[in-house]
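[agent] plan:
  1. take the single chain provided in the ticket
  2. run structure prediction with default settings
  3. attach structure tokens to the ticket
  4. add a short note for the reviewer (M.T.)
[agent] executing step 1
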Amino acid sequence: MTSPPIEEITHPVRTSTLRHLIFGSPFSTTQTGAQRLPKILALPVFSSDALSSVAYGTQEILLQLTLAGAVGMTFTVPISLAIVVVLVLVTLSYQQTVHAYPSGGGSYIVAKENLSVAAGLLAAAALLIDYVLTVAVSIAAGAQQITSFVPALAPHPEALCLAAIAFMTFANLRGVKESGRVFAVPTYFFIASLLAMIGVGVVGPWIGYHPMSLGQATPPPQRVLSVFVILRAFAGGCSALTGVEAISNGVQVFRPPESRNAAQTLAVMALLLGMMFVGVSHLAQASQVVYAHGQDQESVLSLIARAVFHDNDALRATVLFSTALILVLAANTAYADFPRLSAILARDGFAPRQLARFAIGIVPPTFGAVPATPPRRREYRNAQAARVEAIPTRSKSAALAPAQRRCRC
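[agent] step 2 finished; step 3 output follows
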């Protein structure tokens, strides 16, 4: 039997080589366990979204309290502490979830098994949409930070967004473990730089080092300080809780014992998030940072770094650069959890069976976020905050009835 001509096998060889470069080596069943993450790598993979929310959580509180003038701004720390109480309750709830549902699925599995199929599908739909918006919001916000460092890149935010999305897609297609290694250094760099700034700002006055005055003029009050204003500030500050649910959706990617490791990682994430959030709020209130509507000004973190480091550009740039990195990498939550949740939906017959393959599941957040990448951060953040999380009413359940029919595509 004669062998085929060289021309006939060249194209398959090239195709195989290209696939290997993009996806890496295929994993056999026995190799799947090697892609399980230790806690030190699982923390950056699943917590980048939650930790990055420190960049705008306090900012959203000040945005509302500034409307009540200087008196309203004194409630920054108390509101932040109230949000930390909610964070503790949410963390304890998800720790129970990861033990009760070690196969993952998070809100979808819990709602479906304890409420109804319609409630589970509503939770799953909200999460999937949120994951796509997370990519858009985080990438756009990160690009905006980068253009503030390099003004020459300001006319090209779309190119920066597309490059970041392409990088994260490639990293996740190569494999979960390699993705964890890619994101570990920037995440821990952000944690170290922010905790250092908070440490200097909090401990400094005890040893005679005081943050400098920013000299910002407090705008005249536009509203009377009321319960409504405080509740609006509380609701805005709850954006700092974004991404806390990520670990409960990816329990099966942890090394055995999966549930215990996931619960411990969740506790560490909540501890770091609470410390950084309250620390940033304390420094913002102590430095009398003003962040008001209608002002084209730098971010709250930038103003705090300017006050704490006495306008040292190198140290301030370190904080802002690490913040830009973590905002871009926060999109990894979508890449880590969208495929897992869509695979569970495909297994249950509520999504196309092709989504049961993790590599295919990476495609929706990639191409779904591309049209939303221009840096209009506030518009997309508001859309993300408005996602439906409530238990469906009778009318909503009726509207979802057609969706309960199992997909047979």
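[agent] step 4 note for reviewer: The two ends are 42 Å apart (CA to CA).
[agent] ticket updated
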